[in-house]
Amino acid sequence: MSEKRTRSTLKDIAFRAGVTINTVSLAMRNSPLVAEPTRQRIQKIAEELHYIRDTSAGSLRSGKSYAVALIFGDAANLMFAVRIRLLTEQFRAAGYQVLVFNTDERPELELEAARTAAGRKVDGAIICPCQVDMCALDLLEEHCIPTVLLGRHFSDRAADSVVWDDFQGGLLAGNHLVQSGCRDILMLNAPSQISSAQERQAGFLRALSEHGCSAQIAHVGALGGGAAQAMADLWQPGRHFDGIFAFSDLIALETACFLMDKGVRIPEDVCLMGFDDIRKHIALPFSLTSVGTDMEEEARQTAQLLLDRMQNHAEGAPLERTLPVYLAKRTSTTR
């Protein structure tokens, strides 16, 4: 049986490095008060000693956990995966760890995530709400946890939020499909209670109306797999839509798989486009036209808004920041 290792302390590192415990503490937090060569030497010794920082002790002293909760609906969606990575980079640079909660777009799991985050005494939270109710938001507010909504917002409740210009995105999508020659058009949208679904649909229909066109709207479950079922319900042999706008790239990719299994060619038979432009961040086997935004900027603004509330105790009216969108034209709509 191997001998149990004694946990290393800051005192052990200080003794080995020949410096004070305070200097070690500063070095382990990457403080600019410690010269770079000294900091690197201390951190190397800490690694050799298998030092693990006791965050609970620091939290008791400071009253902070240096942890942020990310509460998202579907961590398996590549869009959320990109957001988690970019936000983690932002908070890590600020000295925070992130706790990721997946809700499956279910309000009871969203509330459970908020309750767990409050129990862990997180310093702040970022949530993409399922928008069935506001119970999770209420709980975070009751526990005085600064919170930023990401990607969605409530029309009847003021809250810090960072969203895309979803109406403009819908306009871009509608104009593009009509200009590509589409007339028999389908929108595969997310559940109707979601603010981004409402706004993308409104912009999309506005664009089609301006061209004298209309579209059929079908709502798809927010989680993966819903697009195939929606397409199966709509499928009629010998007849298909010549243009499809999907609420997300995930829905668009699932739709592409369904169509290709049916022998429908993209874009020869149907122009297909999504929303998120995840291809900019993750290699995909399919060249998909999509609406996107600068996600690095989204992460920066979201993190900074929350950090201002957490660290600087910034007060004042809730802030809503709307990010501009662009159209990325690719071969899924180029005939």
Q: N-to-C terminal Cα separation, in Å?
A: 69 Å
What's the helix count?
12
Number of strands: 12
Helix content: 40-55%
Runs with pLDDT <50, length 5+?
Answer: none
Beta-strand percentage range: 15-25%
Major beta-sheet overview: 6 strands, parallel
Strand order of the largest sheet: 2-1-3-4-5-11
Kindly state the mean pLDDT as a whole number? 90
Q: Tell me, briefly, the overall form.
A: elongated
Structural class: alpha/beta
Order of secondary-structure elements: HHHHEHEHEHEEHEHEHEHEEHEE
What is the alpha-carbon Rg in Å? 24 Å
What does this structure look like?
- The protein contains twelve helices and twelve strands.
- It is of the alpha/beta class and 335 residues long.
- Strands 2-1-3-4-5-11 form a six-stranded parallel sheet, sandwiched between helices. It has a six-stranded mixed sheet with strand order 7-6-8-9-10-12, sandwiched between helices.
- Helix 1 (10-17) packs across helix 3, helix 2 packs across helix 3 (36-48) and helix 6 packs parallel to helix 7.
- The longest helix has 17 residues, at 295-311.
- The chain is elongated, with a radius of gyration of 24 Å.
- The model has no long low-confidence stretch (mean pLDDT 90).
Provide the descriptors you would attach to this structure in a database record.
alpha/beta; 12 strands; elongated; 335 residues; 6-stranded parallel β-sheet; 12 helices; single chain
